[in-house]
Amino acid sequence: MTTTDIREAIDHRRRRLFGAAAISLAAAQYVLAGAADAKTDKARLPAITPGTNKSFASLKQINAGLLNVAYAEAGPASGPAVILLHGWPYDIYSYVDVARLLASAGYRVIVPYLRGYGSTRFLSADTFRNGQPSVFALDTIALMDALNIQAAVIGGFDWGTRTADIIAALWPQRCKGLVSVSGYGVGSQTATPLPPEAEHVWWYQFYFATDQGKAGYARYRHDFAKLIWRLASPKWNFDDATFDRSAAAFDNPDHVDIVIHNYRWRQGLVKGEAKYDDLEARLAPGPAIAVPTISMEGDANGGQL
C-alpha cells in the first residue's frame, strides 16, 4: 500500500463531510462573516500574532444539563453567537486569540471547558463519567439552552470537531454554520481498521486500552499532554508558560476517567449509556452535514483526533 493510499484511508471519514453537504466555501464565508446578523461590515479581521493574548477577560460558571460548566465569554451579549470547542489534550486557551478577534467584530463568543476539563464539574457525584462522543454534543446543547442561545456558529478541533459535527448533523437548527478542523469527525464503534502504517498514529488510543495506560496517564498526564502537543504540532514552538496555562485544565478530578472512557468507547472496549443508544444509531452511518461549513487543516498536523 502506498503512502497515498494510506492517506486516503485516513481521510476517508473526513471527506464524507462534503457528500450531500455540497456547500460552497463562499456560502460558508457568508455565514461566518455574519452577513445576516453581525453589526459589522464584512471587512477582514486584522492579522494577529499567535500568543498575543494570554488570558480571557471573563470566566464564568453556569449549570447546564448534567454539569456546572466553566466557560470564557467575550464580545457583546447581543451579538450573534459563536461557540468554540477545544479538544484533547488542550483547553479553552487554544482560542484565546481568535475569541478576541471575533469579539472585536461584534460576536458573542462562548468557549467552554468540556466535561473533565478545567473547573467544569458534574452536578452529581452519582453521574457516570461518560466520555462517549454524543454526550459532549448534548453538553453543548444544554449550555446553549442555559445561555438562551437558540443557534450559533460552532467551531471545533479534535474532540471539538467531533462534537461540532455531531451537533450540525443531528441538530442542524442549532448550528448556523460549522468550522470543522480536519474535516468530518463523526465516528462510531464500527470503524474500519486502517493499515499498520496509518494505525500507528493512534498509538495512545491503544495504550489507553490497558490498565497500565490508564495508570500511566493518571500519573503523568502533564508529560503525556506535552508529548502529544509536540507530536500533533511538530512546528509549534510553544513555551512552558503556554503549556502550563493549559495543563492546569487536566487537573480536573474527572479528567482521566473521561479521557479513558472516550478512547475505550471508540475502540468498542466499553459500553456507553443505554439512554444514548438512539443517538449513536443515528450517528453510526456517518450522517451528512448540510449546514454551511468550512473545513480546514493545519500544514503540519501530526494527526491526533
What does the model show?
By secondary structure, the protein is an alpha/beta fold. The protein has one domain (3-296): Rossmann fold. Helix content is 38%, strand content 14%. The chain contains 11 helices and 8 strands. Strands 1, 2, 3, 4, 5, 6, 7 and 8 form an 8-stranded mixed beta sheet that branches. Helix 4 (133-146) crosses helix 5 (159-170). It is globular. The relative contact order is 0.18. The model is unreliable at 1-32 and 38-42 (pLDDT under 50).
What is the structure about, briefly put?
This protein has 11 helices and 8 strands. It is an alpha/beta fold.
Strand coverage percent: 5-15%
Q: Which sequence of SSEs, written as H and E, runs from N to C? A: HHEEEHEEHEHEHHHHHHE
Give me the number of helical elements: 11
Give the CATH architecture: 3-Layer(aba) Sandwich
Backbone structural class:
alpha/beta
Shape field: globular
Measured distance between first and last alpha carbons: 23 Å
User: The biggest beta sheet, please?
Assistant: 8 strands, mixed
- Overall structural domain count: 1
Mean pLDDT over the residues: 86
Radius of gyration over all CA atoms, rounded: 18 Å
- CATH fold type: Rossmann fold
In the predicted model, the low-confidence regions spanning at least 5 consecutive residues are 1-32, 38-42
Output the CATH homologous superfamily.
Alpha/Beta hydrolase fold, catalytic domain
CATH class: Alpha Beta
Number of beta-strand segments: 8
